[in-house]
Amino acid sequence: MDIAMNYKASDQLQDLQYFGEFGGINPSISDASTYTFLSAKTMFDTFEGNTEGCYLYSRHSSPSNLYLGEALAALESTETANVYASGMGAISSVILQLCNAQDHIVSSRTIYGGTYAFLKYFLKKFSISTSFVDITQTEEVEKAITAETKMIYCEGVSNPLLEVADIRALSKLAKKYGIPLVVDNTFSPLTLAAAGLGADVVIHSLTKFINGSGDCVAGAVCGTAQFCLSLKDVNHGAGMLLGSTLDSLRAASILKNMRTLHIRIKKHSENAGYLAHQFEKDGLPVVYPGLTSHPGHERMKKQMTPSYGFGGIVTIDVGSLGKANALMELMQRKNLGYLAVSLGFYKTLFSAPGTSTSSEIPPEEQRAMGLSEGLLRFSIGLDNDIHRTYQMMKACMAELGILEQRVTAV
Ligand SMILES: Cc1ncc(COP(=O)(O)O)c(C=O)c1O
Q1: Which residues on neighbouring strands pair with residue 152, listed in sequence order?
Q2: Which one has a higher pLDDT value, 39 or 200?
């Protein structure tokens, strides 16, 4: 058993205790863009990064952002964490901090479409190139590494194909070549202790499960104090200079929502697991890491914290884009959830990744990686009676000829 399996993130989060300015049970929200100094010398020292407990300007840091950062560091068992105005703000800052012009990245080929576009198209401006590989094949990852490679990049559980990265093996490989392993853990907070498993930098889009309310975009970078400070450096820090800073008011609300993360993740997983098993039994092509038919099932079991389950995301291939669209529209009309991108909401969210969140990936590459037209991604909600939801979803599928058998009420 290694640190990843022993680390109790929810205990660490539970034990974080703050007293607000007036003794409030939530810390006070920092409602200031800038901070006063009693002496000019302290201001100078703060610019040099030398003063503990002094704030400079809220693009650099603010008390509310530091509180949220502390909770994210506790979640991922890293020394510290920085928060950003979006997941992409976090991702782009990390990549631009670690790579210079002419450098090379080895990345999983199944990643969030925005990250793919950033790596494939945007970074061309800086002549930074990326080799996209099947991350589940460690030898393939190793073969792609060159003298210019500055990082291995992947998602713990990938969007949208739910491929499970072997974080321990990738970490060993990264160490062998002296490069960092960067893991986006957005799909599997609490479930995968990515840093404990060997990731050097862990990224989250807080927009999703961590905030869980569907009311903001935000991101985080969890890592060593040295790396997180480098991102804030007033001369060289991508976080500081690109300006993707989270607003303090929003940081405070995300911190409050994080208090229920453990309960929500368990319920998302329980519901997703139930539906995945039922629809697989009904003969549908279901992808879910909790199914023994999933190629990464055993790998997931070896890495996960079992009490949180296999996560809240399920994909089902309904055969064609036409059927996928018709099913989503029908399910929305029946109040089963929303035809919307994103994840981690209390209601189920569904989208067809090929024409939405992964549309940045060219169709031939989508086909090569197994992202079919009829693939639907479901972020399963917190429904109290998931059996009722199953019956209703099944009725929608039967109505559209996706499931042949008629539904009999149980
Ligand atoms: C795995 C993953 N990482 C990062 C992002 C980007 O996050 P944000 O939308 O908060 O910028 C997303 C968004 O869908 C995602 O699914």
Answers
A1: 106, 181
A2: 200
- Give me the pLDDT at residue 5, please: 66
pLDDT digits (tens, 9 = 90+) for 237-257: 999 999 999 999 999 999 999
Ligand 1 site, residue 196, Cβ cutoff 6 A: no
3-state secondary structure 231-297: HHCCCCCHHHHHCCECCHHHHHHHHHHHCCHHHHHHHHHHHHHHHHHHHHHCCCCEECCCCCCCCCH
CA 25 – ligand 1 centroid, Å: 31
Nearest alpha carbon to residue 372 among 294, 323, 317: 317
Q: Is 184 in the pocket of ligand 1 (CB under 6 A)?
A: yes
Residue 55: how many other CB atoms lie within 10 Å = 19
Residue 116 has pLDDT above 80, yes or no: yes
Q: How far apart are CA 258 and CA 67, in angstroms?
A: 12
The whole-number pLDDT of residue 14 equals: 93
Distance between Cα 383 and ligand 1 center (Å): 24
